Predict the 3D structure of the following.
Amino acid sequence: MERAGRWRGHRFLPSRDVALLLGPCVLYLTAFSLFPLLYSLRISFTDLGAADSSGDWVGLANYADLLADQFFWNAAVNTAVMVSAAVSIQVVLGTALALFFNLHLRGSWLVRGVLILPMLLTPIVVGVMWRALLNPDWGIVNWALETVGIDSPNWLGSTEWAIRTVVLVDVWQWTPFVFLIVFARLQALPRDIFEAAEVDGAGRRGMLSHITIPLLLPAITFAAIFRAIDAFRSFDLVYGLSYGGPARSTTTLSFLAFQNGFQFQNYGYAAATSYVMVIALILATTLLLRRVRVRRADAL
Amino acid sequence: MAKDPEVDPRVVAGDYIADSIRSLMEGRVSRRTFIARTSALGLSGAAIAAIVAACSPAPGASTAPSAAGRTGVGATPAPSTSAGGTPPPSTGGVAYDPMKYAGTKVRILMTGDENDHRALGDKVAQLKEETGIELEITSPALGPLIEKTLQVLKADQAEFEIINYLGFLTTQQVGGGYFEQLNAYIDDPAETDPAWDFEDFAESNLRNVGIYDLENQELGVGSDVYGIPGLHSGSVVYFYRKDLFDAAGLEPAKTWDEFKAAAEALHTDEVAGCSFIGANDFSLATVDWYTRFITTGGELMTGSPATKDFRPNLNSPEAVGALQMLIDLLPFAPENVTTYGFAENVDAFSTGKIAQMIFWSTIAGPVFNRDNSLVADVTGVTPVPAASGQTSRAILGGWGVGIPKNLEPAKKPAAWRALAWITSKDVNKYFVEAYQIDASRDSTYVDPDLVSQYPYLPVAGEANANAQPIETTILNDFFAMNDVMNIEFNKALIGGQDAVTACANVQTQWEDILRKADVLA
């Protein structure tokens, strides 16, 4: 028998239809998200390793080892540096570009199209491509810099420069994403507020700092959070560009988990690393999303 | 369809004993093998002794070349086929029939990082023509290969008939008991082409990837064979530019002092005096540092995992000295050598920008390829330098091929047939001829046709024969330990620390790893 009900004014769909509509999705998520998630959680409590390991239960030992591991903290610092530096630059640049293109200069549509090309590439391709471009012997970047009399830094060969290079490449690829989000929001801002401000005698700078930026803030925050999450778990760019080196200077948490899992076959330890990342992400995004909601209410 | 040798009712003990006696008389198995086989089948000691005495050659009679058993390795007693080995799938007296497994499909899981899969791909049609076996090749990159291999080996039933494993993982994979013992197949003339010639495999490679004492967990000890060297082996040799050395009146370096002196003398703005793996790369430690370390008297590990005193000697003078040698070579190396891995060195040498370097002999392929290399006609190859009083030698690389133990028993004989075919002399020769892949067979390194085309081969063969497995390959943490060395040594090369500190850091980290692995108290 088909039954319908009400919940806060919305009609329930009949239960058979609910099952038919949601079933495939639930099955898919269970098989490909929930099960791997729970399975890897179980692995993180075992010593599952190379061929001779039985995967015995070790409780929280992997987590304890991880927190005492200097290379975990090194990777955590690198990740924090990468996330904060890359996202900050992307937000500033992306917003600036959005404001610039909002001037609707002639031909800007073409530049806009070209601008978003980097984010259409997969990060592994971007990493390998930039590694070639920055090759100290035959890379075109060094050649171009030297042609105009600038000494090239040791992009990927020094501990000082390698993390900056990774950040720069990340910025190159993902600034267009921030730009797109902010630009879309900019297009949708109500014009009457600006007209009223203009009538009241507000200058351009005043309108920018007191109207435009506050109105854009939800979009900027959304883009920043999205990018922060993505940068936090960034692996393929590091893999293709610097392989975590030199001297672990670009080893991020994702790369550390990859190395332990797929190079050294310490699956338990790698799973624990990944779960620490998951916990950190859940905490950070919960806090940040709460902020987005508040700001959105303020702004709108 | 082939039957499982272990359950084939036709293989009864009486037949098997009779076959063993015939094999002993014909010199196809050693006395030791015969004793082991017949003991396992319940024959009394007195009866065995009588048979052995009766089959002994008369005084002065010539000994057949195979008297030590086909799987006898050097001076080692021939292997026991009864202890863990599958009995031969057919009894003696049956002639080798190359088409016995025609119509069978055999799947091989192998590396896609080298040229091996391409070379083997070229031979698939020939294999089918000669044996009727269809070979399907799956060849992921090294990382996924290791992953997939472990999945296959740990599954209830293997989905691949043949697995190609990295020599550095022999302990992990063969030592884990995941591969089928092959002695019985090797010894069976009905299952193995008489021309296959087991003794032609370099002993160093056999001990690195093929022979394992499972009971005592010792690599290269005993005579139980679980893998066949292939599809390529090899070690490290010294590549140098003959034209530059001749012009400067220099001989190729025989010692590390001469190497440095030549680097200094030959270094110009256009050509670096030398090069090495300077990046955080697998070969920084295993090729450049380890070669210098062992050829200056260094001993990487002392003690034994079994007695939990397996201690590294990374803070020894030889360890520090080997790293210091590399640091001292920086002024004569390419400007960006600390970012040079495998590909960068091969490219730079092939384009004439490097005067000398030690490297995996497998790069002879691109270096001597006249289509791409600018130095194909002016490159010389000799054994690696060594300190006075030391033997020239380096790390032993290479791969093994085996049959997963968890393969469906009925499929194993056909798997062996295909495995033996792809490791045959002809196939090995083709690998070198077409792709300059490092050979696994002694005869290939000295094949007159090949040597006339590639004069470096005998040197590479000598290096392969003298090479030694790095001591840490017996641990599952080999890759993690190697990674520690590469990171710390690379940091020293880019000026982040001195050689003493780098080696001390490796020593500390290695001791932690070894304690966790419970091989160091």
